[in-house]
Specification:
The structure is a single chain. The protein is an alpha/beta fold and 260 residues long. It has an 8-stranded parallel barrel, surrounded by 7 helices. Strands 8-9 form a two-stranded antiparallel sheet. Helix 3 links the parallel strand 3 and strand 4. Helix 3 packs across helix 4, helix 6 runs parallel beside helix 8 and helix 9 crosses helix 10. The relative contact order is 0.15.
Length: 260
């Protein structure tokens, strides 16, 4: 069993790829999780030469791209054609930049699966051709391992369609880390380290300073191999500390719990 450590650029909003790679390298990361957003250097519709330059900078720093964190909502009402086109674009970008996975959100209505199966199914050939895994995050309408697995299990291919376990959301909605780990089973494809305090309306805090049982998560994950990434939501909470503060704490957590 082995882990690789990454940091999400969500914690460095607007920071160029070169600088994000430097921060990641200085804190012992093996890779970066790239937020794909119009406000970022890595964004939808990038020109191929821009993608090649971003890849060169990351690989030149001795790092890998752990994941592309996209914002497609696979369960959301609306145009299937638009959602599938956005998914295909994200998967193509992953292939060009060398990312092994893309993150999507459920984004449905109160646990309703909606058109998720059809939308994900439409891009299965693209995922297989690029060698990319689609990761549905435990988030919004499907915050638990139980609900997220329901979206990916019909495909029966965890190497192609799996779940990203965000440490906060399943636990916050009443599912213990032990339950989440058991429910996800072979469909666990990625883990995000995150901590927050209930009393502060779930404002992010550095790992180990909040209420999320990260020690339980670490213990449960030691029999698993994959990417572990710090998600620090400074894009949404601009007054929280710079990413270097939680990244030091996340690196300590990683070293404590990673498989020997």
């Amino acid at each position: 069993m082995s882990w690789k450590f990454a940091v999400s650029t969500l914690g460095m909003p607007g920071v160029p790829v070169r600088e994000a790679a430097r921060v990641a390298r200085e804190h012992g990361c093996h890779g970066v999780e790239l937020r794909v957003h119009p406000d970022e250097e890595v964004r939808p519709g990038m020109a191929p030469r821009e993608v090649a330059e971003a890849r060169r900078l990351i690989e030149g720093a001795g790092l890998e791209v752990a994941c592309l964190a996209g914002y497609v909502k696979v369960c959301a009402p609306g145009s299937d054609a638009s959602a599938v086109a956005e998914l295909r674009s994200l998967v193509e970008l992953a292939g060009l930049i060398g990312a092994p996975a893309v993150r999507v959100f459920p984004g449905g209505e109160s646990g309703a699966d909606g058109p998720a199966r059809e939308r994900i199914g439409a891009v299965l050939p693209d995922l297989e051709r690029q060698g990319v895994t689609l990761l549905v995050e435990t988030h919004d309408s499907h915050p638990t391992g139980e609900l997220a697995r329901r979206l990916v299990e019909p495909f029966g291919a965890p190497e192609t369609v799996a779940v990203l376990w965000d440490a906060l959301h399943p636990w916050r909605t009443g599912e213990s880390p032990a339950q989440t780990r058991r429910l996800l089973g072979e469909y666990l494809g990625y883990f995000q380290v995150k901590d927050a305090r209930r009393a502060d309306s779930w404002t992010p805090v550095p790992p180990g300073e909040g209420d999320v049982p990260l020690a339980d998560c670490g213990s449960l994950l030691r029999s698993w191999s994959g990417w572990v990434s710090l998600e620090w939501e400074r894009a949404w909470y601009p007054d929280i500390a710079p990413v270097s503060v939680p990244l030091r704490a996340a690196a300590d957590w990683f070293e404590r719990w990673r498989p020997e």
